[in-house]
Design a protein that fits this description.
Layout lengths: L1 H15 L2 H5 L4 E9 L4 E4 L2 E5 L2 E6 L4 E6 L6 E5 L1 E3 L1 H22 L3 E3 L3 E5 L4
Parallel strand pairs: 1-9
Antiparallel strand pairs: 1-4, 2-3, 2-5, 5-6, 7-8
Length: about 120
């Protein structure tokens, strides 16, 4: 009986540790970029990445600058900030313990972007 309880306890510890890594899908996030008018060029961190409307796959562990350009219109840029998800940290402390904290911190899974959609309104030059 003790052996069965030990195995069950170990399995529970493994399954509930690193909550954010298991539930949030790693360190990538989707950032939707739209503009009015549409079909504007999108630059992510200075590099061209497509035209609006666009879904960008970004690393949620760091901030990103998104710039939108279109001929005849003024360029506009915004910064998306990466934040620590307090809920994931609390879950790791109470459920996952040290292992969960280490795994989620190392993978950046408990981070989140401060927004998941950026809408730009471009003004004519």
């Amino acid at each position: 009986m003790l052996k069965i309880l030990s195995v069950l306890s170990l399995c529970c510890c493994i399954f509930i540790t690193s909550c954010a890594t298991i539930l949030s899908g790693g360190n990538q996030a989707t950032l939707r970029v739209s503009s009015d008018p549409s079909d504007a060029k999108v630059y992510l961190d200075g590099m061209p990445d497509g035209h609006t409307p666009l879904d960008l796959s970004v690393d949620k562990r760091k901030p990103h600058t998104v710039e939108v350009r279109k001929d005849g219109y003024q360029s506009v840029s915004r910064t998306v900030i990466s934040n620590l998800g307090a809920g994931w940290l609390i879950a790791d402390i109470f459920l996952g313990g040290l292992i969960g904290i280490i795994v989620d911190a190392a993978t950046g899974s408990w981070n989140a972007l401060d927004q998941d959609h950026i809408g730009f309104s471009l003004e004519k030059q």
